[in-house]
Amino acid sequence: MNRVQLKSMRIVEVLAALAFLVIATVAVFMIAPNGITSASGAAPGDFADTESGPIGPADRDFLIRVRQAGLWEIPTGQQAQQRAGSARVKEVGRHLIEDHTKLDEQVRALAAKLNVELPSTPNADQQGWMAELSTKTGDEYDKTFADRLRAAHGKVFAAVAVVRAGTKNSEIRSFAQVAVDVVMKHMTLLESTGRVDFAALPTPPPPSPAPSK
Question: One matching Pfam family, short form (predicted)?
Fold first, then answer.
């Protein structure tokens, strides 16, 4: 093969490589017109920079969950003082009032600082539980109180733990630590009533397969 032919082949190879890069770039923008998404699935535009680090969708959802927890657990703890039949359930209700009042003050202050809009009403499920509890008294109230609140705390515990483990914002991380401790405390208190139906709680998901060696 002479020099002219070799030079021609190299030119063809370069042009082919350039064509591939152009096609690949176009494909990326067709798939993700707003930019490449992060490992969490959130686009860069979903994050906002703050003095304490970036805040993303999971961070905002965490603050909303804490706020809504207080919006139904504080009045439910107050309701328990009149409707519960057990002194222990009434005592647990007082812990809910005290702890969520403090958390609510903290979450509203932090949300204002990080420019996160918080709800002013409980979510649909929480409103349904409140309506259900308002029809019960005595022993029936105690059982429903323990079951509904223990199940709710189990769900929020998982969500808060994920944020605590992965958030990039130092203030969210610090507050998530507080929230994890409070939720764990409340699960333990609710279980101490002896009225939680553990068989009704959702089964933990199976563990992820071990990585192959």
Answer: DUF4142
